[in-house]
Each structure stands twice: as structure tokens, then as C-alpha cells.
Amino acid sequence: MVLILSKNHMRTLLSMTDCITAVESAFREFGLGTVAMPTRVSLTLGDKEGWLGLMPAYLAQTKSLSTKIVSVYANNSRSHGLPNVLATVVLNDPETGRVTAIMEGSYLTAMRTGAVSGVATKYLSRRDSRVLGVFGAGVQAKKQVEAICEVRNIRTVTVYDKDKSRAKEFVDSSESPNLKMSVASNPEEVVRASDIIATATTSTTPVFNGHDVRPGTHINAIGAFTPTTRELDDETISASKIVVDSIDAALAEAGDIILPIGSGVIRREDIWAELGEIITGTKASRTSDVEKTIFKSVGLGIQDAALAKLAFDKAVAMGLGTTFDFEN
């Protein structure tokens, strides 16, 4: 029997606290070498402004084997009334290969992307960070705020989006009474005040000027995930300690890394570490309160595998979901 889990099920099953713990464990496994994960297979549909990715991964210690099919269509919300990001995750039994669950993956994707920024922030940001600046005002921006507030005592959040009404709606919809939320009128206002910056946009070009970044700032850059798009400029990249989710994935997909390497601004050797190396202690994290740090993520299948196993185990324990017999 295969367990089918809807988006509503996933909302019930996945808390940010649990997701951060699961994603941190997955990256620890990655750092220890107990995972199997090819570089994401992707297909760009230029005439549709669409992108499709296939992401299999196996976590040996967690005993999770999954594959995510994810699409990003820039015009979905505007033209079709659909989310720009759509995903489905298939979970297999690693002992037999049998499919054990099929689950809605868009919510899982939002949670795991937020969670990895939470993990990176835990290891790379200053402990006394209080001000968070966010670029973008979509679903992922909300999960960035949620995750970062889990690991740091954030008191102020400033949001910038080219669509000012969208940014205002983002702020007005906040359910955190202890957070002071505001809309910034320009990127400089965000960057010059922030201890931590999260970029969660669909921009193809840098969203702020690196000269405005204060000493000691930590940046989570999660929006751009193709070789020709970037959210960070050369100044930001060259002045910061760079940590990535996967060096192979970053060199294949992250324009924030690929483009400055191609122009000679940085070298491959300037990538300090993978997040798993930071978690396992193989590489040092932040070394001073004035050091600027960047976590660049393109998203890895191990994050999906970790949360798929978490959701499945909780669903079984709680009796949630619908079962279907595909074999008869």
C-alpha cells in the first residue's frame, strides 16, 4: 500500500523546529559521506518560462530514499492562478525500492528551504543578531523569516520587494506579535540596518549593492538557482566567506558563484566550505564578529529525503493520509 499525503497533511506534519533538526542531520550525513545524491537533472522550457528538476537522494543513516519532481514556472501565479513552484515527492523503501508514499512537495520544498537557512544561520551568523532583512515577499520569504527566528532572537524584520503592495501584504499578514515588521522603500534601507539578510527572489540580477553590507553580516542567498541568474553582486561575493550546500551543485547551477568565477572576481578555491563540513567541524564557521558570511543554496535532494521520511513516520504514527494499492 502507498500512503498519499496532501498539502494539508504536510502542513500538519511538518513544524519548522522539526524540519531544522532533520535538515541539520541530513547535512551532517552529507559531511560524513553517508549519502548518495547525483547532481540535479533539470530541463528549461524557455518558451514557457518554466523549469523542471528531478532530485533523487539517499540518506543511509536516516534510512530515507526519495525523489522529488519540482517545477518553477514564472507566470503561474499571474496567468494560471497556480503557485510558481509545484512539486511532488516519492518516498521509497530503501531495502526493497518499493514506493511507500507519494506526497505533495511544494509545502515540503518551502519548509526544507527555510530550514536549511535556519541551519546555516545557526552556524554562520553572529549570536547577537537581532535585525533581519528580507528581499522578496512570497511563500519562501515567509519561511525564511520563520526559520531564522527559530535560531536567532530576531526582533526586527525589514522587507523589500519591487511590488510594494506585496511587501505590505507580507508585513500585514505577520502572525508574530513580538516582531517589529516594516516595509523598506529601497534596498539600501534593508542592507544597512541588517545583521542577517535573506534573499528569496526571482531576480536574475543582484538585488542590492554589496558596498552597503555591514561588517559581521550573514547572508542566506536562496533565490537564484540557474547558472545565468544571481542575487548577489561581485562586491558581496568577494568580501565574504562563502559556504555552499554542495560545491558540485553550486558550480553546476549557482550563478551567484559561477558568474564571478567566470569573470575572475573569485576562484573556485574561494569557496570556503560546504555546510556539512561546517556542521561536522571539518571546517571552521564564523571566526570573528566582523567577518561577512554567505550561505549560497541551490537546494539538494537530501533536504527533501530528510523531510519526506519525517512526514511519513509522523503520518503513520498519527494515522494521517490515504492509502492506495498501486500493485493490484
Question: Can you put this structure into words, describing what you see?
Answer:
There is one protein chain. Helices cover 36% and strands 25% of the residues. The protein is α/β, with parallel strands linked by helices and 328 residues long. The protein folds into two domains: 2-109 and 302-324, 2-Layer Sandwich (ornithine cyclodeaminase, domain 1), CATH 3.30.1780; 123-299, NAD(P)-binding Rossmann-like Domain (Rossmann fold), CATH 3.40.50.720. Helix 2 (16-32) packs across helix 12 (301-318). The protein is globular and about 60 Å long. The termini are close together.
What keyword list fits this structure?
single chain; globular; eight-stranded parallel beta sheet; 2 domains; alpha/beta; Rossmann fold; 328 residues; 16 strands; ornithine cyclodeaminase, domain 1; eight-stranded mixed beta sheet; 36% helix
CATH topology of the largest domain: Rossmann fold
Q: What overall geometry do the principal axes of the alpha carbons give? A: globular
CATH class of the largest domain: Alpha Beta
Tell me the count of domains: 2
- Under CATH, the homologous superfamily of the largest domain reads NAD(P)-binding Rossmann-like Domain
* Count of beta strands: 16
Structure summary:
The protein has 328 residues and is an alpha/beta fold. The chain has twelve helices and 16 strands.
Question: Would you spell out the secondary-structure blueprint of this structure?
Answer:
Blueprint: E1 2-5, H1 7-13, H2 16-32, E2 35-36, E3 41-45, E4 50-59, E5 64-73, H3 76-80, E6 85-92, E7 99-104, H4 106-124, E8 131-135, H5 139-151, E9 156-160, H6 164-172, E10 180-183, H7 187-191, E11 196-199, E12 218-221, H8 234-238, E13 241-244, H9 247-253, H10 255-262, E14 271-274, H11 275-280, E15 293-296, H12 301-318, E16 322-324
